[in-house]
């Protein structure tokens, strides 16, 4: 499977989370503790917002730990909102178009998990993508297909409902083909202003997902940590597995849950697929 993180808050250099913490995303690419695989070396990607324009995107097919351009880029750009992903393929080719995050206009999307039995139902799922969206589908992964299905089912108007309908459609098609427990996912998506995250699997044994405690609470727990002093109170980090070993710094996203990261109105709620 994969590992990913989302950062939203005070503008920082991505290197702070990709390289400089004890169990950084780069460290997780070699030594994942909670993932389905220890190594995540089948490509990587980073997407970032830096103003009123579509997000930037940088992806590569090699292991993240050895890419000099990723290190260079993460040392020099600053962003208040970025996605980063390290990939462990579940069978689709290692190619740039299959690396996360995926981008459509102002939207970014990344995923950890799989659609079980994907190749048996891929054709039927693809045919549910809206015709105007279909030309933008570049790769061969179930993850990107899920993105365009969610867009087709209303992601841009109501992200939670769009993802719920996407999952409902996948589960309905899988059931028609006698495929059990088809959906396994942790997902992050953003329009550049808000971030939505999802943790769900059909069998209710989803991959790990965590979010950081509020900065004011972290300042009380770790008063000598200079990083917490310079971040705004609205700063949030969502990760496949915790960065570093700071007891009390992370909450686990509940099973079958979704949430919104948005200044002043963060929330978590139950997530349920919606039949279509």
TrEMBL record:
<dbReference type="InterPro" id="IPR026869">
    <property type="entry name" value="EgtC-like"/>
</dbReference>
<dbReference type="InterPro" id="IPR029055">
    <property type="entry name" value="Ntn_hydrolases_N"/>
</dbReference>
<feature type="domain" description="Glutamine amidotransferase type-2">
    <location>
        <begin position="2"/>
        <end position="242"/>
    </location>
</feature>
<dbReference type="InterPro" id="IPR052373">
    <property type="entry name" value="Gamma-glu_amide_hydrolase"/>
</dbReference>
<protein>
    <submittedName>
        <fullName>Class II glutamine amidotransferase</fullName>
    </submittedName>
</protein>
<dbReference type="InterPro" id="IPR017932">
    <property type="entry name" value="GATase_2_dom"/>
</dbReference>
<keyword id="KW-0315">Glutamine amidotransferase</keyword>
<dbReference type="Pfam" id="PF13230">
    <property type="entry name" value="GATase_4"/>
</dbReference>
């Amino acid at each position: 499977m994969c590992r990913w993180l989302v950062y939203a808050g005070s503008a920082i250099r991505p290197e702070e989370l990709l390289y400089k913490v004890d169990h950084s995303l780069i460290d997780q690419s070699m030594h994942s503790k909670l993932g389905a695989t220890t190594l995540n070396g089948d490509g990587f990607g980073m997407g970032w917002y830096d103003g009123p324009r579509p997000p930037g995107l940088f992806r590569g097919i090699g292991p993240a730990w050895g890419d000099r351009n990723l290190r260079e880029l993460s040392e020099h750009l600053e962003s208040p909102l970025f996605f980063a992903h390290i990939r462990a393929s579940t069978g689709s080719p290692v190619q740039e178009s299959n690396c996360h995050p995926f981008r459509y206009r102002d939207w970014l999307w990344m995923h950890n998990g799989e659609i079980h039995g994907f190749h048996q139902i891929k054709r039927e799922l693809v045919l549910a993508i809206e015709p105007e969206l279909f030309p933008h589908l570049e790769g061969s992964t179930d993850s990107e297909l899920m993105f365009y299905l969610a867009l087709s089912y209303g992601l841009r108007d109501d992200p939670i409902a769009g993802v719920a309908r996407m999952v409902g459609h996948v589960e309905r098609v899988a059931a028609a083909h006698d495929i059990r427990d088809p959906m396994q996912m942790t997902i992050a998506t953003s329009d550049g202003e808000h971030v939505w995250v999802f943790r769900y699997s059909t069998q209710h044994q989803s991959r790990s997902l965590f979010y950081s405690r509020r900065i004011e609470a972290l300042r009380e727990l770790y008063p000598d940590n200079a990083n917490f002093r310079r971040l705004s109170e609205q700063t949030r980090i969502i990760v496949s597995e915790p960065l570093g070993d700071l007891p009390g710094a992370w909450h686990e996203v509940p099973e079958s849950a979704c949430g919104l990261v948005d200044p002043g109105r963060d929330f978590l709620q139950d997530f349920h697929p919606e039949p279509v």
